[in-house]
Amino acid sequence: MASRPIISRTVPALRKALQPYRAKRQTIALVPTMGALHSGHLALVKEAQKRAKRVVVSIFVNPTQFAPHEDFGSYPRRFEADVKALSEAKVDLVWAPSPAVMYPEGFATRLAPEGAALAGLEDKFRPHFFGGVATVVSKLFTQVAPDVAIFGQKDYQQLRVVTQMAKDLDLPLKVIGLPTVREKDGLALSSRNVYLSELERGHAPVLYRTLKNCAARIKAGEPIEMVLEEGRLEITRAEFALDYLDARHALSLAPVASVKDGPIRLLVAAKIGKTRLIDNLAV
Ligand code: AMP
Q1: What separation, in Å, do the N-terminal and C-terminal C-alpha atoms of the chain show?
Q2: pTM
Q3: Active site residue 41
Q4: What percent of the chain has pLDDT over 90?
Q5: pLDDT band with cut points at 50, 70 and 90 for residue 161
Q6: Is 186 a member of any domain?
Q7: Considering the chain, what is the average pLDDT of its residues?
Q8: CATH number where 73 lies
């Protein structure tokens, strides 16, 4: 049986657990997660192991990135199952602070990211979101001080915001984004997929199907806005309430009018029943 990783729950305990790695000058990779781990997260862990001697996975459902009407209370929490999966994956350390450890009484500082964080995508529908993400990720980076941090491209705007934040704050680490792990039918793995009813799960692959179809047509030279308009129709016909389907510059996330303005990334967010799903794809 694989040995259990060290589990740290306070900042002093985390520092103590990391100290032997630092003393031996071992490189450290951090994989930040909100738990309810699936094979997408485990792919990040595998890459982390290739890039550093020691791997730390943080599990923290961050209250400051959820609005009051969102799913903070019901977000899936499966700590024991997660630790088991991370033991099998031979992770060294699990950083699992409570909200009170992360945000002690009197906590009064919040980052306000701009640029990609104000692109009019996720930020338009979750205005509190990137402030919460940037704040907690900057804290995770300071607490763990990793050489490299691994994120998924699944949360594409988040990846752009975090990459910029690390650069702007001169944090001495490399941020890596890895491709999205998908189900056989194309649905991006997500901890929130457990919310889907059988019927909704049947409709869900329309998001990736539409992204793929739109990317191919845009690459072939069809006008972007026309292709996107047809894509939007396809998604709403599959019972989704669409938040956005848009084409943006892959780095700045600024709007693009043609492939000449690229590289282009297509990004989508839509709600089916109570579940909001996001996905994206390179053109
Ligand atoms: P979460 O626990 O959903 O906040 O995600 C933690 C990290 O895992 C983020 O960097 C996500 O982008 C990444 N991630 C989530 N789903 C996937 C997936 N299907 N493929 C690859 N990475 C993912």
Answers
A1: 44
A2: 0.96
A3: yes
A4: 94
A5: very high
A6: no
A7: 96
A8: 3.40.50.620
